[in-house]
Amino acid sequence: MKVFETWESEIRGYCRKYPTVFATASNARQTDENGKSYIDFFAGAGVLNFGHNNDRMKRAMIEFLESDGVAHSLDMFTTTKRRFIQRFAETVLVPRKMNHKMQFVGPTGTNAVEAALKLARRVTGRHVIYAFSHGFHGMTLGALACTANAYFRGAAGVPLEYVHRLPFENEPGGGIDQIRELQCALADASSGLEKPAAVIVEPIQAEGGVNVASREWLHAVEALAHDNGALLIFDDIQAGCGRTGTYFSFDGMDLAPDIICLAKGVGGYGTAMAMNLVNPEHDGHWKPGEHTGTFRGQGLSFVAGAEAMSYIEDDSFMNDVKRKGAVMADRLKSLVPKNAAPGIAVRGKGMLQGLDVADGSIAGAIAADCFDNGLLIGPCGTEGRVLKLIPPLTIPDADLAEGLDIFAAAVRRHLN
Ligand SMILES: Cc1ncc(COP(=O)(O)O)c(C=O)c1O
Questions:
Q1: Residue 22 C-alpha to ligand 1 middle, in angstroms?
Q2: Measured between alpha carbons, how far is 361 from 349 in angstroms, rounded to an integer?
């Protein structure tokens, strides 16, 4: 530990909550240097959808390394990138009749969001983005302007501008009527409101507290964007890539986003990759190389990401995600005390589930108790009041049950 404390920046965050040194990891378990095993309900903040050191991916990556595949290629053509594009197109895009272009960006989610905002502003010639309360879109200045959390925003050091904040569906003042009223206001040339370049929304807010938008509300948001000549950007960076039992968190809702931001799980193995799916009509507004980035051609991520498609195209795997998600949701619901205080609730979809205990200090105590008993879990939402459960989708039933038992015992000790 001393090395980290002496040399690593004060910015250290998660390691303060999980104060041990992890040495190895396999599927849904991590083992620390003392040999203690932890069940992972955090999964790298939603990166490790297919588990730590996924065997299929590991084998493909070793083969790639041993055959001297191109590990780094900027945005040059490579064999591995072609395979990823082909596999993604045939598994995700074609079955949904989507003809979106894949724009590879610098390898983190915030890069994808920056590119999406830039393109929306380019296409519309407008400046303002509509974003939602509790939204989380990343830490670079454009994305941070769309992120709602005051703690993160406070670190910007400059005013975060050109974003108009709207309440998310389940927030005070939010809902379909609010969107309709805004539509009326926008139709009035004297409302004083600027029409947006884009409306950016997470169909399911993860960091924001596991808030699941309804199909009806998302359709109202879509109309808000499209009726006003703006682009609809879905940030599916945490809730996408199979997490909810379908590839996109909004699958089956008959929605037509102009840009879908993906990162985290898209690289499959925990190696970085981010990508926007862009309506070709808008994609044509980019000039070659205009939004560049050194790390857009990550060979290892392309190899693992292509392998991830074998899970996505497997209906029995995706159905199993739904089944495990239902197991999680049922167990969480059983933990809500009778006559629970207002605000205590279970929310989620698929294997993205949250227990809102309506108090950040209680949630923190539960998470710390879980850690002591061998379970990694991350609080989210306002003041960390929501315990978010996002285990790898590949977690064995036995580990899921054991993790839920540890969680239940911790909740009982701290929530009454
Ligand atoms: C919905 C969403 N968007 C964007 C981001 C930012 O991604 P990154 O941390 O890779 O920049 C995150 C990260 O948690 C996220 O959950």
A1: 23
A2: 25
If asked whether residues 299 and 210 sit together in one domain, one would say yes
Count of beta carbons in the 10 Å neighbourhood of residue 284 = 10
Question: Domain boundary at 269, 297, 312, which?
Answer: 312
CB under 8 Å to 154, separation ≥6 — which residues?
A: none
Domain that holds residue 400: 2-53+319-414
Residue nearest to atom 7 of ligand 1 (CA): 109
Q: Are residues 270 and 283 in the same domain?
A: yes
Q: Which helix (H) or strand (E) holds 185?
A: helix 176-187
Give the tens place of pLDDT for each residue, 234-251. 999 999 999 999 999 999
Domain identity same for 49 and 63: no
Whether this model's pTM surpasses 0.90: yes
Domain boundary among 312, 333, 354: 312
Same domain membership, residue 37 and residue 95: no
Q: Ligand 1 — pocket residues by CB below 6 A?
A: 45, 108-110, 113, 136-138, 202, 206-207, 235, 237-238, 263
The helix or strand, by DSSP H or E, that contains position 36, with its residue range, turns out to be: none
Say how many Å lie between the CA of residue 339 and the centre of ligand 1: 35
For ligand 1, the distance from its centroid to the CA atom of residue 53, given in whole angstroms, is 22
Question: Domain with 128 in it: what CATH number?
Answer: 3.40.640.10
What is the number of domains present in the chain? 2
CA–centroid distance, residue 76 to ligand 1 (Å): 26
Amino acid at 234: F
Ligand 1 atom with the smallest distance to the CA of 143 is 4
Q: Is 326 buried (19+), middle (13-18) or exposed (0-12) by CB count in 10 A?
A: middle
Dmax over CA atoms of the chain, in Å, equals 66
380 plus 234 within the same structural domain:
no
Q: How far apart are CA 85 and CA 97, in angstroms?
A: 16
Query: 304 and 338, same structural domain?
Result: no
Question: pLDDT confidence of 337, banded at 50, 70, 90?
Answer: confident
Which ligand 1 atom is the nearest neighbour of the CA of 236? 1
Atom number in ligand 1 closest to CA 206? 16
Nearest CA to ligand 1 atom 8: 109
Instruction: Assess contact for 235 and 258: CB atoms under 8 A.
Output: no
Is the pLDDT assigned to residue 55 strictly greater than 90?
yes
User: Ligand 1 mean position to 136 CA, how many Å?
Assistant: 7
